[in-house]
Amino acid sequence: MRPISFKTETTKGTARTGILSTPHGDIQTPAFVPVGTKAGVKGILPEQLLSLGAQVVLANTYHLYLQPGESTVKDGGGLGNFMGWSGPTMTDSGGFQVFSLGAAFGRTITKIAKGEEDTVTQGVSVFDEEVQSQHGQLAVIDEQGVTFTSHLDGSLHRFTPERSVEIQHSLGADMFFAFDECTSPTEPYAYQKEAMERTHKWAERSLKAHRQNLEANRKQGIFGIVQGGRYEDLRTESAKEIASMDFDGFGIGGSFSKEDMMGALQAAVQHLPKEKPRHFLGIGEPGDLLLGIAEGMDTFDCVAATRLGRHGTIYTKRGPIHLKTEKYKSEHEPLDTETIIPGTEGFSRAYVSHLLRSGEMLGQIIASLHNLGFIIRLVDEARAALHAGNFDEYRRDFVYTYYGRTL
RNA sequence: GCGUCGGUGGCAGAGUGGUCAAUUGCAAUUGGCUGUAAACCAAUCGGAUUUAUCCUACGUAGGUUCGAAUCCUACCCGGCGCA
């Protein structure tokens, strides 16, 4: 008996609802997963997560390995216990940091490409200070793994698939991801292919490392990650390859341009087994969440809600607004008239704008709370609409009101 | 009253004859943020503009100089000291 199981409830085309069962409880899917990178969702208490409707939280291997160290988390009773969250948990493998500390280091690129693109220096196999300064990166990739310079103190570290899995065993989340390489969307086809093949080898090694640990196998499920950048043929190939391995669930990771997201998603999802959960890594934006749900994804994690909130932008049914902007200094109306989030009742735009402008952390907390609540509710409503059989209308109406455009 | 130090763009505070419309920080204005090196980052920040330039500006008024925020004189204002 595996610790992770998934049962489909309703389907509508490729979209579906289901129940993802974990040792720490069931997750109604589709579900949004708040990100608590360092074992804490920035600005939000576990009890608040609960009141917002969060069902599961995701933390990060790279960060917790560096600080406080995985043994501290393990000694603290594992990720959930350590952070005071009794529900299900996930950890990311550190594969995203291969990108964010590698190709993206010191640049303005993100995992979602838009507009003009430049070609980025590829990873190199030898690591030393000279290489680092030459390439301006904190992470350098080779076939066996990734060598990192800690962003905290400059010390040198190395992740291999086996090491990532070992750390994730110590962290003890219910679900964790195989070590992968998240590529930059600006990489050309040849590099996307090369990285994808490397990710496949790492997936196999991650899976093997996990299955060898019988105790961890009883408690934790491992998800394999599909890569392939924006290219549909690579996405198809990657999905087939990863699906052929005995993972407990799947993640779709990596990069694409906004326009290619749907194609990449479709190319991958159709080759993933229906009876296993699918996680869309690092997504997302309201419209992208609804797209992912429509294409059959079950869970999503994204830092945008809390980061945008901290930086002063809040979601509203009629699109995002930046509260630090002059006009909101005097708007004495609710954050979003159409979406009142538990814990933020009674706070006006003008009030939160003032808190944000004056550097009061309460402003960031309220905005984060609102955004997280907004996104969780969005996914919850989408789930309800799937159950009710009117998801297409729900999506269409939301997109029309939020973006002012049709699908 | 005498002496002394000082008055610079919204604020703080550099500059002490040309490379100064004036370093820097804060504030302000506007962008950005999708598996969090992110309570962060970027641009703008005297006026006009054909963005080359032109005008107005470093307490006020004069002066020296080819050229002054920078030197000189007077005045106004402020800190400190002595009366």
What this model shows, in words?
With 407 residues, the protein is of the alpha/beta class. The protein folds into 2 domains: 5-302, TIM Barrel (Alpha-Beta Barrel); 310-403, no CATH class. The protein is 42% helix and 18% strand. The protein is built from 16 helices and 18 strands. The longest helix is centred in the last third of the chain and has 28 residues, at 361-388. The structure holds one RNA strand of 83 nucleotides.
Question: Strands, helices and their partners?
Answer:
Layout: E1 5-12, E2 15-22, E3 25-29, E4 31-34, H1 46-52, E5 57-60, H2 61-66, H3 70-75, H4 78-83, E6 89-92, H5 95-103, E7 112-113, H6 129-135, E8 139-141, E9 146-149, E10 156-159, H7 161-171, E11 175-177, H8 189-211, H9 214-219, E12 221-226, H10 232-243, E13 249-252, E14 256-257, H11 261-269, E15 278-280, H12 286-294, E16 299-302, H13 304-311, E17 313-314, E18 321-322, H14 349-357, H15 361-388, H16 391-403
Parallel strand pairs: 4-16, 5-6, 6-11, 7-14, 11-12, 12-13, 13-15, 15-16
Antiparallel strand pairs: 1-2, 2-3, 8-9, 9-10, 17-18
This protein binds one RNA strand of 83 nucleotides through residues 33, 35, 37-38, 42-43, 58, 60, 63, 90, 92-93, 95-97, 99-101, 105, 108, 110-112, 138, 150-152, 177, 180, 182, 225, 251, 253-254, 279-285, 288, 300-308, 310-313, 322, 325-326, 356, 359, 361, 363-364.
